Batch of 2 targets.
Target 1
Amino acid sequence: MVDRIAITGIGVISALGLNVEQNFDALLKSQSGIKAIRILNTIHNGELPVGEIPFTDEELTQKLGFTFNKGWSRTSLIGLLAAREAWNQAKLYKDYKSKKGLVSATTVAGMRRSEEFYCDFIKNGTGEDFISTHDAGDSTEKIADDLGIKDYLTTISTACSSSTNSIMLGARLLKNKVLDKVLVGGMDSLTKFTLNGFNSLMILDKQNCRSFDDNRAGLNLGEGAAFLVLERESEVEDKAILGYVAGYANANDAYHQTASSPEGKGAALAMSKALKMAKLKAEDIDYINAHGTATLNNDLSEGLAIEEVFGKKLPKISSTKPFTGHTLGAAGVIESVFSILALKHQLIYPNLNFKTQMKELNFSPETELLRNLKLNFVLSNSFGFGGNNSSIIFGKH
Amino acid sequence: MAIYINGIGSISPQETKDNSTFLSNIIEYTNAFLPILEPPYKEYIPPKNLRRMSKIIRNSIVAAHISMKDSNLEMPDAIITGTGLGCALDTEKFLSNMTENKETFLTPTSFIQSTHNTIGGSIALGLACHNYNMTYVHRGFSFETALHDAKMMLDDGEIENALVGGFDEMTDKHIILLKSIWSHQKDGVSNFQLRNPEENGTIIGQGSNFFVLEKEKKLSSYAKLLDLKFFYKPDSVIEIIEEFLKNNKLNTKNIDLVIMGYNGISSETEVYDAVSDHLFPKTTIAWFKHLCGEFYTASAFGTWMAAQILQKQYIPKSVIYKGNAPTKLHNILLYNQFQKNEHSLILFSQC
């Protein structure tokens, strides 16, 4: 029998809350975390709403039990909070015998500190403290050191599909017996760099984002982190299994550096290859947690790709981006946590702010919280710049 | 199951773009920072595409192109890249513009090209390749994870071939950053002096090194990739190397050449020397960072060198660190470390 990839720990931090419980509670109450900017120091304050974690770096430092945060980027602070939650749930703090690894993901890395200090340093040579936190490997090593992970660590950066790809590599490492337990996920903090970058692309909505709505006008940026603990099912012992990684695939759209192809070729490929790997038919999927960023381009191309793969009998669909904002490298794994919770509690989250069906599509997303469903499999999509498209399927325990 | 390196492509501070030659003319530099020898881009990339590409995108596309042509591979089953910094120049450009213009009047080009996966995406775009596409960005493990991921997928039978690359660029500004946290040589010192430097420190380098890995042996095959392992903050490097060789049914005497990442930083030299003294006292030791400089994905240049040595069955004098050129060249071990935290072992053998 195939030794399935079991999920035994989850942790998440986002604009919805500091842990799984707070995030799930906000999802059940249809409370969006997207609000006016409070903490990020930018001229766009008051103009662009974001999904911001409502705590300063100092407050996050305190929550970690540290007395100071020298050499810690915001990305690492939120990453460690989510990583500890997942690690703790999987009871790995006292596991000294297993081979343990960490596959993390980030796109902005330590940019939040670099953008404060970089130019001053180049000009005056002051504030060099940010240099060690500038690159993408820093946050991964900070987490590995805190949790005592040494056997394998690496970091992925494939734009907005980054952390879905980290789940994929983690599963591969377990299947190949490179590791016994692996913490997979990712993190990204809000930065002026990304806010201004997306703003220069003119794809940020000044209102709360409206995924799959005919009048959608762009995305809202968010920040957050999430991690899963994966193990081979045969070695879980007496721990509770939260769900399974049933299938996954990564494909490239190869259409444009930032835009998706109009027909969503890469997206359709990722979804159908994931189904094939999971040995499932399209009708076996009960819910799609869509990438659904609310840009004109993504929702059209993803919507058409979903119609192509799933035909006329579509599963229920919603995007949780209107709750959290687009958390970039963390989005895939945050939405994976939401998908696992949907399976565990047999419910589907509403696609907030939706009013009008898109002219080009034959479906509308779910707009109410749906409970008491029978969900066996959930598919989650994450698509990014560079044509990097990934889909992952979770199965119920 | 064997994995073959069937194509290589290197754009580096040395004359490496022509695979029929192998370090026949070594270039000496006297800066603590080695530039790239730029290839004639127009021979590889259409001029209309060239215009918007930064140098690292150009160099990486050229290196990828050379390696694919070398092995006659037209469409890879996977494109897997590793980079410590990604497109550093575009990142800096957007960051500086944003800061100087106080978040106003920004254009998106450098933002779009700043992401780490720009190059993996650009290669896919150029080839219209819809297959697996991944980018690893972990300091001294960036290239290693790319290689490892490709190896697992080839072993699993998920793919038949993979294009794997490691690349990093150094910018004037990034060098200012690195010089403040790395021990480095002063300008004016020759890269050949890095072996016994008067001062403790390295020279900063860069490069794009790509490889085609396939399950099938070809006329173009350079070497077999037997195994690799990377490890973080190890307690005992020596024990790990012994165990790694044992897992591959080898012992230290079966290794004909060890290539090590000597870089002029004395605390790292001590680790390499200890490995050399304890495990390989009679084995020939080679090095490469005097040619390519130190950077996050320098081990990809080391891999290029191992592949060339095994195919050509020849070790250029300029890369021998200790001992004489061995009479047989069957197994090569590459041992690299980065800032003492990330260590990696890559094992190659003759085809």
Note: The radius of gyration of chain B is 19 Å.
Target 2
Amino acid sequence: MSFLAQTTTTTGVNFPTIVFTLAVWSATVFALIALAMPDQTPEQRARIKAVATSGAGAALFFSIWATQTQAANAAGGAPGGELLEQHSWLSSFPFPSTYHLDADGLGLGLLLLVSVVFFCASLAAWRNDRRVKLLSFCMLILETAFLGVLVAYDWLLFLFFWSLPVAPVYLLVRGFGRGHRARAASRYAIASLLTTALLILVAGLITVQGNLRAFDMGTLPTLPGTGQAVCFWLTAAAFLLAMAVVPVHSALLDLEEDSTGALAAVFGAVLPTMGAYGLLHVTLGFFPIAVNYSLFFAALAVVTVLWSGVMALRADDLRRLIGHAGNVLMGLVLLGVAGHTTISLTGATYILIARGLAVALLMLAASAIQERTRRIRISQLGGLAWQAPHLAAFWGVGILTASGIPLLGGFFGELLLFTGAFPAHRWTTVVVLGGTLLLAGVLLWTAQRVFAGAEHEGFSRVRDLGVLEITYLGILAAVSLFFGILPAHFDTLFMNGATNILYPLSAG
Amino acid sequence: MYNAAWVVVLLPLAGAIFSFVAETARRAAQLCMAFVAGSLIVALIVLGDRFAHHTLSGLPNVSALSYFSVTLPSTGTETSIFPSTFGAVVGVRVDNLSASFMVLIAFLFLLVQGLGMGMLRGDAAHRRFFWLSSVLASAMLGLVASPGLFQDWMALGAMTAITLLLLLHRWHREETAAPARTAFLTLLGADLSLLIGLVFLVYRLGGAISLSTVPGGFTAAPFDDYRILDPIWQNTLSGAPHTSYQTLTILCLLLGVPVLIRAAQIPFTGWFLGLREAPLPVLAAVSVSLLGGVLLLARVYTLFLSTLHALSVVAVIGAAGAVVLSAACLASRDIYRIALLSVAAQLALAITAMGAGGYSTGLLIAFVSSPLGLLLMVAAGGAGRAYRTRDIHLMGGVWRRMPRTGLALTIWALLTGGLDLVGYDAVSAIFHNRFPNAGHLAGWVQGLAGGLAMLAVLLTAMYAGRVLIAVCAGGPAPRRGGVVERITEAGPELRRVALLGAAASVVAVLIGLPGVSGFGSGRSRVPGLTFTHWVFYGGIKQDIPFVPLALVIALAALAAGLAGGGLVARLRWAGLRARLHLPQISATPALRRAGLVAARLAGAVSGELAALDHGLVEPLYDASGEGLETAAWSLGRLRGRRLGIGLAAMLAVVLILVGLSVLAASGHFPVRTT
């Protein structure tokens, strides 16, 4: 039991539970502090960076606190636990809304992932000296938005957090992107606003048709068959668009390709993860009719895995290749959804975390490569391991994590996911497994093209990773190793989360 | 005491970790070797304790930790598919098999690292080789001492990753990239096949069998332990409602493919043979890891026993593989390639014996042949370095110029040629033709496997004789840049490793002698503690009987093979000298004519085999490594319109499936859901 969890003391005073609030809003507090600071001299800019890193660190600290508190509890991972926060918010509204923060096992796992990725991204952002205040502010607001989505248990709150990233992402891509950054930013904004519009429609339908008379997400709506089917398809469309699965994958890939440094890591690792969270938490959790459409998700999983695998094979841009690799892993998550068992959904949770870690690691490594060589096209690279062996080693950890090699993040998720999905979709499972083999081959081939081979004359002055880079890449690698060696630390947590999604009435 | 097995598994890993703090690469290497040696000592202690207390019972001691365990919700229908408590353990299982093979594996990796000390001095990746080989040793020991298929899968997956890293020892060379990628993808394919096997095992058998009938008190998931080794579980299996012939056959296929890939058996040999550009210590480490395939087969043996015809298929594939690999050995001139082929060929005989029901015999063959394979590699490394070539036809005179290496090669050739009794063991197992569950091979399968095995034994003796005569007899072939005086004995480290390898090979042969039975009575009775009395299936001890016919065949094969191989080597040598217009070997005209006819015949046969190997088998494997480049190149040539058509087609498929899904939701289309 944590200090900040709801406890009864000997004096009879109940301390309010504010762990989720601290996790979500601490980044915003630091963002506001950064906004108020001057950024004229290098020292001042360094202070802003320190504040940004502290904000991300604070969010990470409270996320770990929340996750650990729940992981230590046998019933942890089911909503309504000791960390629940619910306060009256818009009570005089026709449809009252509450400040309801809670998280199931899925949300807690992703809370950890998002805060780790943002912390590493904030460290990576130390290398940037341009528009420091804008970068720090937008990234911290972005972190608040993502963490908020994961713990919001009120439709209004959820929609607020869901729509919050549009402006920061747009500004970040326009301000720090490269290539066709204007087009990428616009396409992302359109896709994001479209998903928001769809979700607003769903929230309205649920609230009105479900006779809830409130925006609270903690209560299951009782929708008629047609209404449920409509809501299911609307949310599925919104979240699949956010996950950027085939055939709606272009917007995110453009965003990843035209972003730089830490931003590419955040966009690649976190943005689609939010879509996957929505698909699992809302589409599957709220609409039991989803079980009837498992064939659809299975087909989409196959198409996404194979199509993205083939596209990765053809990609020449390093970031685009990583984006396609991330999409392959997202196809695995879709298979978990199609499996529609607690085991497959638990596996999907592990896969989401491993995917986020692998993509973040590879994106940050790709940025390190680009920074050193001024090149991002694979065909123009080669022999980098001569000058940067540590960089090659971290790249290796990234591809082994993505390939599901035992004792790294991905393997345990694959075991659960395939075990859970096999009874419902046997051939699909085998085909998707084949897709992972293709992914492993592509990633290895890329690694060999980039790092192996004869020493490149143009790269003779390339230096290896510095201490800062080793630190943030090392953190990501260590977390991947932790999830590979000790997955049991979270198994009950994630299983309870998956149980809550599939059988909400019996969870906990 | 059995908890000490944890130490055996973890010590090499600790050595690898500690090697990072060593100041110099040499000190790191010594640290790794010291930890592997420590592991060997503890493994010997565990083996000794097992001898003292559990000589004949064969019952395992398991020390395990829960790796994960989840309880499924009782609300849904999942408990009808999966066990209600779903989980897996990791740990150590000390039985006679694991106690023996832990000693062997630790010893072999010590030799491998000794080889690395001798051959990689000054190499840029010296430190990396040692910590990686230590981690590989740890993973293999984890596989040997694994209490269940889950740990098997984990250990094999870790071995796949480490193998890739080892093969990238010379990562900057183009010629190593494609073979390393091929090997990695092939091994990863094996791991995925095993994963599907595990998933299928859980799905088809997990919730269907009454676990209360299983001895040992295990109640968790099916791959928690090796229940499929237990005869009682086997009986339960055969009566289980979900267990059909089809189910067992699919399981055998899914678990058999990883066995064949891991042991580099046909048709999955290419990934292993393509590695010959890697440094010899790396090849030695990878060749030791081939034992993993045989061990996996031993652990899932019950499954194969329970399945109609599965062991027959194993026997025929093994015997055919032994013939092909031995013939390829005979056709090869590259001594590294011969060493690799030889390791795979010997394991093929082990698999043949296990397919014929000789569980103990097969494991004995694997046990005996592993140090022998390593001995050849050590000797090949010394000779190759001294002669600056890997072509055995350019070598010669090792007996005179490198006497200790020559002695090692002689021991290898004589033992491999037949004195190690591997051929005898394999043939006698086929003649004996008796499974532990009292089944047997059909007559024609026995005949086919027996014929192939005898041919393989003959070819084995031939290539051993050929290597011995070509490398050790005569003198080195004159060639540009070759200075005979520079050919000197290998360094002391390599000599030490060769000596240890030779001694281990002889010991391994001695403990496997057939027909040895106990003598004496009462307290002074000495049990006939040969390998087959010690490592056996379930509670059924399999003695290797003394079969005079098999012994005659094996000895005849040895004699004929050594003579034939020697003749081939000498005549090839003569042909080479003739082409170089050097003085011919003096011989009578009749003998010369007969020799030339034999040489032409042998040259034609071995040339055809070499052409088959180079022209058909190798390109197939190269294609899998280079296929990625080819596919990417082809995709790059596709126009955008074609891609658009492809995407449109895929979208159409998705839309059709969506339609079907909607129909299914409304009950108009049958679909399987959970």
Note: Chain A has 18 helices and two strands.
